[in-house]
Amino acid sequence: MTDIFAPHHLGDLGLANRIVMAPMTRTRAEEDGVPTALMADYFAQRASAGLILTDCTWISDQGRGIIRSPGIANAAHVAGWRKVTDAVHRAGGKIFLQIWHCGRVAHASFRDGARPVAPSALPAAGQIYTPEGYVGFETPRALETSEILPIAAEFGHATRRAREAGFDGVELHGAFGYLIDQFLQDVSNHRDDAFGGAISKRCRFLLEAVQAAIGAWAPERVGVKLSPANTFYGMGDSDPEAVFSYACERLSDLGIAYIHLMEPPKGSEADAPMRDVARSLRPFVGTRLIANGGLDLDAAKALLDDGVADLVSFGVPYIANPDLVSRLAHGWPLAEAHHDQWYGEGPGGYTDFPTYGEAPTREAAQ
Predict the structure, then answer these.
(1) In angstroms, rounded to a whole number, what is the distance separating the alpha carbons of residues 295 and 317?
(2) SS3 for 104-146, per residue?
(3) How buried is 242 (Cβ within 10 angstroms: 0-12 exposed, 13-18 middle, 19+ buried)?
(4) Helices (H), the chain
């Protein structure tokens, strides 16, 4: 049996355990994307995770897509993140920066009027929160072929800045319907050039971006997150198993640290384009696999024991349980965060959740 609480090596990094804090958007950065002291407190509180993955963080002004999301596009961003990484390292943790380009999942109203860009001029499904409230997605501008490789190179520039900011590595956000995912899946990529059509061409942008990140640091300091079963923002593919098995094989060939795979959201399995994502794609992953998506401790242990996953990530449970590792290890009950606490401003619902030993009375009342 694999001990989920035992130390594990991720390349040359020693992790305290096999539990990963999944990346989650929490909208606590400044309006210009500079990380705040509050964010340093938040991540340091959760430093007992084997590995922390940050909020999705924009690599360039063009890549910005969520209000009050952090950036890694300039020196002020680097300085802000350095306070975060220093706090996490003082607390004994390891932390990767999730780097991201939103693509079509954005709105001109908080981008100085600039339209979102995408592989094809096809809008995302649903709505986005802007300074004026929720609005429908705009039709993006289709990228010119000559623009695509320079955007891939930005992932390398962002990786250099992440290294300067003191991170232990980076995770490229290839999931959830953002730009990399938009290139991968044929519902959002209708191109007929070198970046569209055949699966190998649709995967090219992902692989170019990953190679840029590797060139800026090292393969063992780079991971990738993918979500083959995600349908948010109208995503989907006519043959997801073919696309993502190919992507996993090619990423493994590059020697990256891990591939982080998302299961379908709970309750959506019947309609998901793929089920049992980690088990289905494990044969194609020649590096470490991090499994993510609605896991409890028993399910996480089963994935480790069966050799499907090497690490497991938890998202929502980390919102209200900064001491999640201790709670899982001792069988202590988990606190719950209501959905209206997931996003916002200030410490409420962010850094004000106590550890189990600090406030048993409060948790007993929840």
Answers:
(1) 10
(2) CCCCHHHCCCCCCEECCCCCCCCEEEECCEEEECCCCEECCHH
(3) exposed
(4) 37-45, 75-90, 145-164, 179-184, 199-202, 204-216, 240-253, 277-281, 297-305, 317-320, 324-330, 360-364
- Cα gap 312→297, rounded to integer Å: 10
Using the 8-state DSSP alphabet, how is residue 232 labeled? G
Strand-pairing partners, residue 128, are: 135
Cα torsion at 305, 23, 319, 70 (round to 10°)?
170
If you search the block for the tokens 């004000």, which residue do you land on? 352
The token duo for 109 is 């109203």
pTM of the model: 0.95
Query: Splitting the chain (366 residues) into consecutive groups of 10 residues, what average pLDDT does each group show?
Result: 95 97 96 96 98 98 93 98 98 98 93 92 94 92 98 98 98 98 98 98 98 98 96 95 98 98 78 86 98 95 97 97 97 90 90 83 42
User: Could you give the CA distance from residue 232 to residue 293 in angstroms, rounded to a whole number?
Assistant: 14
Classify 194 as helix, strand or coil. Answer: coil
DSSP 255-279: T-SEEEEEPPPTT-GGG-S-SSHHH
- Find where tokens 């606590």 sit: 28
The residues carrying an active-site annotation are: 178
